[in-house]
Amino acid sequence: MNHRVLVAGASGYIGRQLVAELLTRGCEVTCLLRTSPDAGTLPELAGAVLRVVDFTSSDSISRQGIDGDAFDAVYSCLATRGGGIRDAWHVEYQCNHHLLTAARAADIPHFVLLSAICVQTPKLAFQHAKLAFEQELLSSGLRYSIVRPTAFFKSLSGQIRRIQQGKSFLVFGDGEQTACKPISERDLAMFLANCLQDDGAHNAILPVGGPGPAITPLQQGEMLFRIYEKAPRYTHVPVQLFSVVGAVLWPFAKLSSAAADKAEFARIGRFYATESMLSIDPETGRHSAEATPSFGGDTLEAFYQRTRHQGLAGQELGEHALF
What we know:
- This protein is 39% helix and 15% strand.
- The protein is α/β, with parallel strands linked by helices.
- It has a domain at 4-154 and 181-208: Rossmann fold.
- It has helices spanning 13-24, 58-66, 85-105, 125-138, 160-164, 185-194, 217-227, 240-253, 257-274, 300-310, and strands at 4-8, 28-33, 49-52, 73-76, 110-114, 143-149, 169-172, 204-208, 234-237, 279-281, 286-288.
- It contains ten helices and eleven strands.
- Strand 10 (279-281) and strand 11 form a beta hairpin.
- It is globular.
- Residues 9-198 form the NAD(P)-binding domain.
- Pathway: Porphyrin-containing compound metabolism; chlorophyll biosynthesis.
- One of its GO terms (biological process) is chlorophyll biosynthetic process.
């Protein structure tokens, strides 16, 4: 493969893996970054060209990022880290809008967007922002590939330290209300890279999960207790807790952006405690493991096995610490 590729959000969790995968395939990769990385902190980007741009300006992306070069495709792995309302619209929509504007001006023919499977049932600010940009991309005239992955492995790693410490595994409700087909960052990077040459990925919205059957939170707990050789202990948390927190914060949301974000975080918690990260079957209107395409070979169980021996290095949990 000898493509010239532009990657925005290259320093992120998936972006780093994508750049490494593209370089392995022989692509010439230029990374667009918000700030210059410290030497040696992003080894996955070694071999790529690094350019710092202002993502709030299409002119900056054009001048400092594209810089008159010709590219076959642009990838966007831009995403908000926390899901706050203002940040969501700023990153998920506005920054992507400026990236698309610069790509069109430079006649880059193909735009690959890393989205999320949860936009199927939009209830949160970041989901509405993602969908708004998806619609803009669909009508842009560029060839597009919109990739909607299910949960990442790191999203299901927040309770590993609890298990290591002999604590209980937290589940919402009965622990079987939701399910997902988790995908590793390596497999997702391969799927994204395939979009360059796979005609079936062109002008398509592509849900994708990892290999194997769907897994519930209760099954995740069982897996961790078995791997870490701990006696199973569960704490069942009522889903209504999120609604109570949101209701308490809502009166203050119009007065303070910080309060609005906290209320939004409560809605985010409730969403992930009640919604499966699976494709919705158009015939039944329900989340379906069978309707969720599988890709790759990395399994969650093998990942958990590695964390027991290698720790969680590279799996920065951040807002995923609870789940």
